[in-house]
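Researcher: Structure prediction, please.
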Amino acid sequence: MSEAMPMRVDRRIAIKWVLAAAAAAPSLRSAAWDAEAAKGYGTDPDLQRIYLPGQLWPLTLTPQLRRTAAALCDVILPADTHSPGAAAVGVVDFIDEWISAPYPRQQLDRTPILAGLHWIDAEADRRYSKAFAAISTAQQSAVCDDICYLPDAGSALVEAARFFARYRDLTAAGFYSTPAGHKDLQYVGNVALASFDGPPPEVLEALELND
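Model: Predicted structure follows.
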């Protein structure tokens, strides 16, 4: 695996990826997706409701592709001593909702994400005669090593590397927007406080504001 771009997300760059995920735009658009199949929630969603997966628009991933997507999420963000893996906190649901949404920005991701998931399954089958979700963690990493850093990918793997970069962004965005992701980042916002005594003295001192 290239040291320049690890598959495992480092906390120091997680926030950068989360912000970049909304801005990165693949160049392909799905011609097969009929936006009329679902209208979505428009520009004024009901924020008081809890929407279940598939409630607003038909979802896209088949059971097999969901297994592939979950396995790839866990290669990118596996469980460790600090947090669960990405698949365990519902990142696959987030990605499925994202590529299924009937909005132009999300539709841009539909074709490359679906093509990439099919490619990674086919590549696992070519190398190991099994689907990606069925091979070992070491074998999954070996497949991803060849596409995890676009500048190092061979010419035949450019599209697969672009897919992986976008999928990694979406995985990070989905994971770090969950409570488990907040905890992994040691984010302490959005918590009600009974009182606020101001910044700690050591912070004020470091900022030369203690006077």
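Model: The chain has one domain: 11-206.
Researcher: Thanks, that helps.
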